[in-house]
C-alpha cells in the first residue's frame, strides 16, 4: 500500500516540483547557516576581543593614575624641607620639629581616596601621621601593621601592599587599604619612609565593569587584589587560568565546564596583572540563535513541503469532488477535478466569514464606552457624534441623559496600598457594581476619563420619575460595604441631547470638586451646590505661599505651618472655589519640588510621584495636614543641610568672593582661603550652588557693576577696576554676555542716564560702544 502511494505521488509533476523546491530551499538555508556560523566563529577572537582589551586598558589607566598621584605625594613629602629637617634632628627634638610636617601631611590627606599619610623615621622608630600626629614609638600608633614590611621598604624603591585596617577605631574595623611605601634616602642611606594608605573601595569603585565579563587583579606575588567578595569562581580554578594564560594577551580557557575568553594586561606602575573573563556563551549567543533558527527553518520548510504534498494529493480533491457533485448533480464524476472550480464557492464562504468577523470585532460595550469618552473630552465633531450615536445606541431615546462621576476618595493614598493589577481588578469591580445597580431601571454606559473616576451615562428605561440622588447615595454605601472603598459622586444637570453630555460632565466635575469642603462619601448635585459657591469666585491673595516658602528657606517650620493653617482657615471661611484651591496647592508643591531638586534633597513621601491630580481627590483638612507635614520634613532637611561642612565651606567661599570682588582672584586663591585642593573646592561648590566658581564670581561682579552703573556717575573704566577687571574691554564683553546689553546701554536705561561721567558717542561715529 505504501509503495503504491509513493509511486502515485512521484508520478504527479506538481508533486515532484514541490518536493524539489522544498529540498533545494532547505539545503540552501542549511548551507548558509553553517557557513555563517563558521565565519563568525573564526572572526570572534579578533573582533569581539577588542572591547574587552580596551576595557582592561581603561581600568589599568585608572589604577595607574591613582597610584601615580599617591606616589607623587610621597615624593613631595620626602623632599619637603620640614620633613628633611625632622629626619636629621635628634630624638629629643622630634616633637618640636614634627609640628610643621604634620600640618603638611594633613593638607595632602584631604583627598577622598587617601586614608592617611605617615612619615617613618628608622633611626628612633618614631613617626608623624596625618591622622594621629607625632608618635615617639610607631608601635604606639593606632595602626602599625606596616611595621613588618620595614625590610622590604628599605630594599624596594616602591612597595604596594593590600591590607586590612588593624587600628583601634571600631568604625574602620573592616576597612580595606592599599598601602604605598616609598623610602627616604639621604647620602645613600635609607633613613625613613613615606607611607600612603589609599582607600581600597574608593579606588576600585572607579573601575569600569561590563555586565557579561568578570575582572580580577593580581599582584606580583600572585595574590588576589580584586575583587575581595562574591568571587564568581574558586581561587583554585583561577590559579589554573593564570597558569594557562601565562604572559599571553589572551587565551581560551575552561572553568567548571564553561568556555571563557581570557584577556590580560600588566601595569608598569604597580606590576599588577588585570584579567577579564568573558563567557563564550554570551559572545556566541546571537549567532548560535541565528544558526539554530536557520536549521529550524530548513526543517520547517521540509515539513511544510511534505504537508503541502499530502494535502494536495489526499485532502483537497475529496471535498472538491463532493462540492462538484452537489453543484452539478447531473455531471458524472471523473478524475480529480480542478481547484479553480472551487473559487466561486470559496469566495462566497470567505465573504460571509469576513462579515461575521467584522461584527464580532465590534464589541458594542467597548465602542459605547469609547464614544462617551470622546464625547466628554470633545474629541469628535457633531456629524461624527450623530453617526456613531445612531450606529451604537440602537434602542436608546434621543434624550434626556443623566451624567454621574463616581470618584475614589484619596485616590493616591488608596492606590499606594495596592499593586497595579489589584487596582485594575477593584476598579473593574466598581464598574460592574455600577452597571448591575442601574441596569434594571436605566440604560447604562460607563467610561474612564481619569484614573480615580468613572463617568456614567444614564437614561431611564421608562418615563417615570426616578430619584437619582437617592440612588447614587445607595450606590456609595454598596461600594463601601462590598469593597471597603470610599467614593464620592458628582451629578450634573440633565443633558437634553447627546451633544450636551460634555457640558453635563463638566457640571458634574464641578459638583464633585466640592468634596474639598464637605468630606468624602457624599453625593453632590450641580444644581443644588453651584449657587452656594458662585459668590466666592474673586481673586485670592497669594501672599501665604511666599511666606511659606520664605519660612521653609529660613528653616522656620513653625512659621510655615502657621501660614498654611491660616490659609486653610481663610479658604474655608470664604468658601473659595475648589478649582482655585487646587491651583494654589499645585503651585506651592511645584515650588517645593523645585527647591528639593535644586539642592539634591530627598523628596518627602507625598511628593515622590506627585501629579496635580493627587490633590483633587482630597478634602481641605487632609490637604492642610499633607502640606504641614511636607514643610516640617523639608525644613528639617534644609536645616540639617545648612549645618553641613560642605554648605559652610560654600558660604565661606562666597563671602571671600564678595569681599574681594575688586581683586584679581581666581580658583586657586579661593581654594587657599579654605585650605583645600582646587578639585575639591570645585566639586563642593558645584554640588552646593549648582554652578561653577567662575560663573558665580562673574555674576557677583556683574551684579555689583549694575549697582554702580545705575547708582553712581563713575566712569565705566573705574567701575571695571572696582569689580575686578583690569581691562575695560574684558569687562564690557563679560557684561554683554550675561546681560545681553553693553554697560553704556544699561546706564542709559537707568535713572542716572543724563548724569554719568562717560558721554555718549556722537551718532555719526563709525565706532559704537558695542564694539569696545
Automatic annotation (TrEMBL):
Residues 763-772 have a biased composition (Polar residues). It comes from the Bacteria. The keyword Protease does not apply. SMART domains: HTH_ARAC. GO terms for molecular function: DNA-binding transcription factor activity; sequence-specific DNA binding. The chain crosses the membrane at residues 21-40, 293-312. Residues 651-749 form the HTH araC/xylS-type domain. Residues 749-772 are annotated as: Disordered. Keywords: DNA-binding, Membrane, Transcription, Transcription regulation, Transmembrane, Transmembrane helix. The keyword NADP does not apply. InterPro entries: CdaR_GGDEF, Homeodomain-like_sf, HTH_AraC, HTH_AraC-typ_CS. This is AraC family transcriptional regulator.
Amino acid at each position: 500500500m505504501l509503495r503504491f502511494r509513493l509511486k502515485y505521488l512521484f508520478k504527479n509533476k506538481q508533486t515532484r516540483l514541490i518536493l524539489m523546491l522544498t529540498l533545494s530551499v532547505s539545503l540552501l538555508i542549511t548551507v548558509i547557516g553553517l557557513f555563517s556560523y563558521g565565519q563568525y566563529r573564526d572572526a570572534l577572537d579578533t573582533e569581539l576581543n577588542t572591547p574587552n582589551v580596551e576595557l582592561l586598558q581603561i581600568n589599568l589607566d585608572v589604577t595607574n593614575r591613582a597610584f601615580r598621584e599617591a606616589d607623587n605625594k610621597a615624593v613631595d613629602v620626602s623632599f619637603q624641607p620640614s620633613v628633611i629637617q625632622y629626619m636629621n634632628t635628634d630624638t629629643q627634638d622630634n616633637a618640636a620639629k614634627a609640628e610643621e610636617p604634620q600640618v603638611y601631611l594633613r593638607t595632602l590627606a584631604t583627598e577622598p581616596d587617601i586614608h592617611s599619610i605617615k612619615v617613618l623615621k628608622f633611626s628612633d622608630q618614631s613617626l608623624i601621621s596625618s591622622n594621629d600626629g607625632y608618635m615617639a614609638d610607631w608601635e604606639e600608633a593606632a595602626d602599625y601593621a606596616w611595621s613588618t614590611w620595614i625590610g622590604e621598604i628599605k630594599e624596594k624603591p616602591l612597595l604596594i601592599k593590600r591590607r586590612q585596617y588593624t587600628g583601634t577605631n571600631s568604625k574602620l574595623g573592616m576597612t580595606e587599604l592599599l598601602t604605598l611605601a616609598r623610602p627616604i634616602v639621604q647620602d645613600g642611606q635609607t633613613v625613613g619612609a613615606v607611607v600612603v594608605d589609599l582607600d581600597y573601595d574608593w579606588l576600585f569603585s572607579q573601575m569600569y565593569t561590563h555586565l557579561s565579563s568578570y575582572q580580577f587583579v593580581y599582584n606580583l606575588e600572585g595574590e588576589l587584589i580584586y575583587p575581595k567578595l562574591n568571587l564568581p569562581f574558586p581561587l583554585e580554578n583561577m590559579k589554573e587560568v593564570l597558569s594557562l594564560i601565562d604572559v599571553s594577551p589572551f587565551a581560551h580557557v575552561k572553568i567548571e565546564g564553561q568556555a571563557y575568553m581570557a584577556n590580560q594586561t600588566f601595569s608598569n606602575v604597580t606590576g599588577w596583572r588585570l584579567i577579564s573573563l568573558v563567557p563564550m556563551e554570551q559572545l556566541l549567543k546571537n549567532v548560535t540563535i541565528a544558526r539554530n533558527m536557520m536549521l529550524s527553518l530548513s526543517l520547517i520548510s521540509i515539513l511544510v513541503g511534505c504537508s503541502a504534498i499530502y494535502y494536495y494529493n489526499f485532502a483537497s480533491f475529496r471535498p472538491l469532488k463532493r462540492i462538484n457533485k452537489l453543484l452539478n448533480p447531473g455531471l458524472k464524476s471523473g478524475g480529480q477535478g480542478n481547484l479553480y472550480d472551487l473559487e466561486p464557492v470559496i469566495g462566497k464562504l470567505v465573504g460571509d466569514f469576513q462579515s461575521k468577523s467584522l461584527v464580532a470585532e465590534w464589541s458594542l460595550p467597548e465602542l459605547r464606552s469609547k464614544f462617551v469618552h470622546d464625547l466628554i473630552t470633545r474629541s469628535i465633531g457633531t456629524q461624527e457624534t450623530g453617526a456613531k450615536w445612531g450606529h451604537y445606541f440602537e434602542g436608546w431615546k434621543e434624550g434626556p441623559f443623566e451624567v454621574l462621576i463616581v470618584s475614589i476618595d484619596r485616590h493616591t493614598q488608596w492606590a499606594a496600598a495596592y499593586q497595579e493589577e489589584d487596582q485594575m481588578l477593584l476598579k473593574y469591580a466598581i464598574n460592574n457594581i455600577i452597571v448591575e445597580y442601574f441596569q434594571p431601571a436605566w440604560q447604562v454606559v460607563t467610561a474612564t476619563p481619569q484614573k480615580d473616576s468613572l463617568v456614567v451615562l444614564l437614561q431611564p428605561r421608562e418615563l417615570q420619575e426616578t430619584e437619582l440622588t437617592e440612588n447614587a447615595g445607595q450606590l456609595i454605601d454598596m461600594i463601601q460595604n462590598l469593597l471597603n472603598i470610599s467614593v464620592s459622586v458628582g451629578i450634573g444637570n440633565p443633558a437634553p441631547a447627546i451633544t450636551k453630555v460634555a457640558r453635563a460632565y463638566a457640571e458634574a466635575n464641578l459638583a464633585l470638586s466640592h468634596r474639598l469642603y464637605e468630606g468624602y462619601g457624599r453625593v453632590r448635585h450641580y444644581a443644588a451646590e453651584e449657587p452656594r459657591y458662585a459668590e466666592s469666585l474673586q481673586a485670592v491673595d497669594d501672599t501665604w505661599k511666599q511666606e511659606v516658602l520664605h519660612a521653609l528657606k529660613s528653616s522656620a517650620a513653625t512659621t510655615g505651618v502657621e501660614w498654611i493653617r491660616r490659609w486653610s482657615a481663610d479658604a474655608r471661611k470664604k468658601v473659595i472655589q475648589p478649582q482655585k484651591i487646587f491651583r494654589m496647592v499645585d503651585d506651592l508643591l511645584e515650588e517645593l519640588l523645585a527647591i528639593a531638586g535644586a539642592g539634591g534633597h530627598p523628596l518627602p513621601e507625598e511628593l515622590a510621584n506627585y501629579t496635580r491630580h493627587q490633590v483633587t481627590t482630597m478634602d481641605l483638612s487632609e490637604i492642610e495636614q499633607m502640606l504641614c507635614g511636607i514643610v516640617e520634613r523639608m525644613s528639617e532637611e534644609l536645616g540639617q543641610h545648612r549645618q553641613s561642612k560642605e554648605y559652610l565651606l560654600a558660604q565661606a567661599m562666597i563671602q571671600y568672593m564678595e569681599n574681594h570682588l575688586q581683586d584679581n582672584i581666581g580658583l586657586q586663591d579661593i581654594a587657599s582661603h579654605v585650605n583645600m585642593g582646587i578639585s575639591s573646592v570645585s566639586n563642593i561648590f558645584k554640588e552646593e550652588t549648582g554652578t561653577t566658581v567662575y560663573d558665580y564670581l562673574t555674576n557677583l561682579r556683574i551684579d555689583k557693576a549694575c549697582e554702580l552703573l545705575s547708582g553712581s556717575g563713575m566712569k565705566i573704566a573705574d567701575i571695571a577696576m572696582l569689580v575686578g577687571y583690569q581691562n575695560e574691554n574684558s569687562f564690557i564683553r563679560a557684561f554683554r554676555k550675561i546681560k545681553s546689553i553693553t554697560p553704556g546701554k544699561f546706564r542709559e536705561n537707568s535713572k542716572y542716564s543724563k548724569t554719568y561721567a562717560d558721554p555718549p558717542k556722537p551718532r555719526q561715529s563709525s565706532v559704537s560702544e558695542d564694539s569696545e
